[in-house]
Amino acid sequence: MNVAGAVPDPRTDAELVAAHVAGDPEAFGEVVRRHRDRLWAVALRTTGDREEAADAVQDALVSALRAASSFRGDSAVTTWLHRIVVNACLDRARRRAVRPTRPLEEEAGGGDDGVRTGAALAVVEDATPHVEARLDVTAALARLPETQRAALVLVDMYDVPVAEAAQVLGVAVGTVKSRCSRGRVALAELLRVRGNP
User: Taking every annotated instance into account, which residue ranges of this chain make up the domain DAD (predicted)?
Assistant: First the structure.
């Protein structure tokens, strides 16, 4: 988003990346401004965690900044950036799987009131069905394997065409379709189970 009153940069994303490589100190910042919200949203949906998403986006943008000279223009800049963000998310998930951590949500003194202390986050339930459904989907999505989650986030939540999602994920179109199909079945089952305790 541009500063109030500032004229939007008329250059295309590809022209901005080329300008960055040529030494323009403002060009890459403009690319980031144009796409940061969507990159953040994809990272958040892929990781399911705000801190992990923020770290993944930061890692991805640093990687993109450093690797800009290798951008050949075979795909859109947004596809290139999405690929880097999704890869950063998956890398962080793989590292987390190797070194699992436990959230600091211990209950205080084993009381019967269920009150949590320490680093636990107090969540107030919203009674509206729309919000509850979204929370159910988010929780179920977080339980899918990262590869299925990444495919579903791109294709189903952000309407990225399957062919472009395949480029972002670095896999064949059929693989994206298969991951989406398996992910949808697993998601539906998780939501059915949640709905019928």
Answer: 51-98
Distance CA 124, CA 5 (A): 40
- Class at the top of the CATH hierarchy for domain 127-197: mainly alpha
| pLDDT tens per residue across span 23-69 | 999 999 999 999 999 999 999 888 888 998 999 999 999 999 999 99
Are 47 and 56 within 8 A, CB to CB?
yes
* Residues pairing with 107 in the sheet: 116
DSSP class of residue 105 equals: -
The alpha carbon of residue 60 and the mean position of all alpha carbons in its chain are separated, in whole angstroms, by 11
Residue 2 predicted with pLDDT over 60: no
pTM here?
0.62
Q: Is the pLDDT of residue 133 over 50?
A: yes
CATH number of this structure's domain 10-101, picked from the four choices 3.10.180.10, 3.30.70.100, 2.60.40.10, 1.10.1740.10: 1.10.1740.10
Contact predicate 138/187, CB 8 Å: no
Domain ranges of the chain: 10-101, 127-197
Nearest to 168 by CA among 36, 85, 79: 79
Q: What is the DSSP letter of 70?
A: G
Q: CB-hemisphere CA count at 13 Å for 101?
A: 9
